Input
Amino acid sequence: MKNNRFVVMWDCNGLEAVKLLPSDADTTFALLKGVEPPKSPNIMHWRLRAQFNSQRHYEIYVFETVKGITAEDIRDMFEASPQTAADTIRRIGTVFYSDRQTQKAAIV
Output
């Protein structure tokens, strides 16, 4: 059974984007058939957005799920329990970009 790969992006205000990454096999077979391959999200644009909005402390992760999980399921998970969702993805995913704030701001 083939897994799904997703890329997610969130910041201090919550989840911003969830996209399914096309599998290498789907891309290869589309090219062999002479049809347009599925488009991948341009996560370099996401990274630039994160870098130029550092006050929002963006995080971007790539992770795999079992085949039955959809982008809507991931959105629902973030809506139901955002901290648990973020912690789970941090645990199972691969960091693409992180400006995670780990210290509280000093009050002078």
Remarks:
- The chain has four helices and four strands.
- Residues 4-98 form one domain.
- The two ends are 55 Å apart (CA to CA).
- The mean pLDDT is 91.
